Amino acid sequence: MGLKFIWIDGRQYMWRDVLRLRREQVRAYAHARQPALFELKDDRRPAAERTAAGRFLEPSLFTQSGRRA
Fold it and tell me: d(Cα 48, Cα 45) in Å, to the nearest integer?
């Protein structure tokens, strides 16, 4: 026959109760949702303008107006 009781921190617990609580924890973890920290928005800029490197390699007409030659 298997283990009926388990001792944790000097207290006696029924093994089946420990297993039941663990199953509940696993089930709750599977259904847990974490809310987003901020709203996600679509970046509708052209692909080259989405990164700093892309803006440097392919400057647009409007970014040229402030530069000196």
Answer: 8
Rounded Cα–Cα distance for residues 67 and 64 (Å): 6
Cα-based distances in Å from 43 to 8, 46, 48, 54? 53, 8, 12, 14
Query: Domain ranges in the chain?
Result: 5-59
Q: What is the pTM of this model?
A: 0.44
Q: Which amino acid is at 69?
A: A
pLDDT (tens digit per residue) in 5-37: 999 999 999 999 999 999 999 999 998 888 888
The answer to whether 31 touches 25, Cβ cutoff 8 Å, is no
